[in-house]
Amino acid sequence: MIVSGTQVEHAEYGIGTVLAVLGDVATVEFFGEALDVVAGELMPRQQSKQAAPPPARGQTSTDFAFRKSFEAVNLGVVPTDPDQLVDLTIGGEQASDEIGSLLANASEDGVCRIFMGYYGSGKSHHLHLVKAVAIRDGWVTASLELDPKAADPAKPATVYQGLVGGLEFPMRADGSRSADFFDLIKEIRDNWSVVRDLPYFKRSPWFSKGLEALLYLSHRRDDTDYVAAVSWLAGQVKQIGAIRSLSWRGGHKTQIPILPQTKDTGLIYAYNLVVLHEILKALGYKGLALIIDEAEHVRSYSFNRYIRANNFFDIIARCAHAPRKDLQKPQSDYEHFDLPPFWKEGPHFTLFVGLTEGEDTHDLKRKMGEMSVLIHDPKDVVHLEPPCESDYEKWCEAFLAESAGRLGPKVQLLADPGLRARIAATLRHHFDQTPVSERILRNWTKIAGFAPAVLMSRDGATNSDELVELIDEAARQIAGEMLPWDD
Q: 3-class secondary structure for the chain?
């Protein structure tokens, strides 16, 4: 019988708790949302002696987060929930501790880490882990994937625009959180007396004059003209007319300079990122963490674009390292702006880059204009490799145990520790048979989710031997031990 407080499962909405029953309609809380459903569509959760313990009161949101992360693993993408991301990363606790330690010493030692590996080695996953740890530790992150058609390092204005558009903020002590660059402008306005005298900020004709102009206007998200003016400061260079005309009408008469976008502009946009880092620190954040993936795109560039892209890489890498005296002044086509020598006054922001292995990454002593301008020291490079067999097996068992406790009664077969051990051992065996260079980690984490996925997709009962047989056959295919059409 279904009464208030009963834990139930719905075929479409998943696991929930009955809040009230009125006739044939039950109000059920599914993962934090109350829905009215037909009572006959609900199945009470039956707990066997071997079943994993049900979630404690208040854990519904955790179950929901795991379900979303489980689906992400099955799709081969990175889970979005930071806590789940650490938990579902093989060696996640150790990796997060290492990242946290780097960030803690960033202001003195600088942080520039290049995650290298071939396709499927986990570069993007590690960068997502960096973002999760950085936000947890009070850093504001700016992340993007380089793209020759959108965020092109040969056109630093597009990279700057993408990074500012990808800002993510940690939660404040009072529970508030800025959502984007527009909210950051509100924070700056509220703390203008702190921001206006910052040394790099004062030397930036774009930030100093642009923000002074915005102070003459009301900060309103529903004012499209004002939003356009703010977007100019966020890298929408064509909105210069919006901020100039609005501020002029508001009483601000100082000429606001354009943000250049042609020729070599790397120095200008690197400086704007330094200013942004300075502002964030003044507002109480730990600073700015840049996270850039797909950096290998520049290999296909023409000569001039290649040089400009790597000049930009060179400058932001210097900003993330402790200063060096043996480097020449960076190239710039806009020296008349008279910027301070910020590239040798750091470290400033932190920098994390995902880079696919290539010939230009093997020689760390190459000259300016090569990919290795990002690398100042061999310790900057983290070569990603698949985990060892024992670590993979332990992770599979832990993942299956979490699935048994959080994915509902259909996967209660996995509550049996013996079955979980058999499945994990089966996966380890085939993982071990695969050459290290061919172990695409995303495939081997996806196959671990195959067992609960099979149970959740079937209406009838599946016994343990049948499930292990299905897992074994699928793992053989992933390991390349058989072709899909082989018997």
A: CCCCCCEEEECCCEEEEEEEEECCEEEEEECCEEEEEEHHHEEECCCCCCCCCCCCCCCHHHHHHHHHHHHHHHHCCCCCCHHHHHHCCCCHHHHHHHHHHHHHCHHHHECEEEEEECCCCCHHHHHHHHHHHHHHCCCEEEEEECCCCCCCCCCHHHHHHHHHHCEECCCCCCCCCCCCHHHHHHHHHHCHHHHCCCHHHHHCHHHHHHHHHHCCCCCCCCCHHHHHHHHHHCCCHHHHHHHHHHHHHHCCCCCCCCCCCCCCCHHHHHHHHHHHHHHHHHCCCCCEEEEEECHHHHHHCCHHHHHHHHHHHHHHHHHHECCCCCCCCCCCCCHHHCCCCHHHCCCCCEEEEEEECCHHHCCCCCCCCCHHHHCCCHHHEEECCCCCHHHHHHHHHHHHHHHHHHCCHHHHHHHCHHHHHHHHHHHHHHHHHCCHHHCCHHHHHHHHCHHHHHHHHCCCCCCHHHHHHHHHHHHHHHCCCCCCCCC
